[in-house]
Amino acid sequence: MSLYGYRHVISNERTCYWMLHHLRWPQDVLCPRCESNSLWKMRESGRPEYRCKNCRYHFSLLTGTVLHGTRLPLTKWVLAAALFSIGISSYGLAREIQVSQRIAWSMLSKFRSALKTSQILRKLRGSVEVDETYIGGRAKGKRGRGAGHKAIVIGFRTRTGKVRSMVVESIKTKQMQKLLKQQVAQGARLYTDEYSIYHPVRTWGFKHRRIKHSKWFVRGQTHTQGIEGYWGHLKPTLVGRHRSVSPKHLQGYLAEADVKHNLGLDTDFTDLILRSLMSNP
Question: What CA–CA distances, in Å, run from 188 to 160, 181, 184, 204, 218?
């Protein structure tokens, strides 16, 4: 559903509440502690609350979720999720929903954290391009490999278009071996450049093709153009929307970009975010 489609939800706190209620409990209300549906229904502070007849646990819609204890209206959370789905900075969100920049940044961080924990990272299969890049502010001195004050990011892209990127502390052969075994299924065909850390890839149980960029960028099916093109889209987006991103929080921004790229335009991204928020952490 588009942002326009949520206009009736974000205009009314009650409507917003029951939409989130349906996302968390599509059928019966379940106790978050013992999952029993035998409950007493009460009403406190204007919203329904429940007490489990089995374990006597007292809970509400937001108990055990990322939104537990929030003082913001639910309409602001839903609108923020919708704006996050199309891309917005913390300063822009603060202006739109009339909160402080600190609160807006905290809300966006919760959304990114929910994305990271909601995605099941299955090992990549088939043909996979692997490349590294360096993300950070502009500074004098060396660029690319060996540049200082930049975060190192390793990226994977399957030939079907799925991407995955992650921040690493350093880029060495042993670390690359561990990372590949965690993220890529044995027997997959890897496409890399001629960087020395990729030389032993065949001994790790993968098929391997290398493109020598000093001579070619594409040679038949051997290339890393897909993942390099993704870097070309990711970096301007981060700079244009957020100006700068702290290395400490960069993984959250990468998770956001990866999920949006992988899901495509046909997915209701706002619904995905709200479902993640309403699930037990």
Answer: 13, 11, 7, 11, 20
Q: How many domains does the chain have?
A: 1
Tokens describing residue 259: 């999920």
The domain of 235 spans 127-248
In this structure, which long-range contacts are made by residues 170-177, counting pairs with CB atoms below 8 Å and at least 24 apart in sequence? Answer: 171/132, 171/197, 172/197, 173/197, 173/199, 173/200, 177/204
Query: Does a structural domain hold residue 102?
Result: no
- Would you state the structure tokens that stand for residue 140, as one six-digit string? 């004098």
CA dist., res. 166 & res. 178, Å (int): 13
205 in any annotated domain: yes
pLDDT per position as a tens digit, 149-206? 789 999 999 999 999 999 998 889 999 999 999 999 999 999 999 999 999 999 999 9
Return the amino acid letter for 129: E
Give domain status of residue 266, yes or no. no
Is 118 inside a domain boundary? no
Domain of 238: which CATH number?
3.30.420.10
Q: Please report, as a single letter, which amino acid is at residue 246.
A: S
The CA angle 2-261-184, to the nearest 5 degrees, is 145
pTM score, two decimals?
0.80
Alpha helix positions (H), the chain:
13-24, 74-86, 90-97, 101-118, 173-183, 225-242, 250-263, 269-278
Could you please report the per-residue DSSP string of 70-91? --S-HHHHHHHHHHHHH---HH
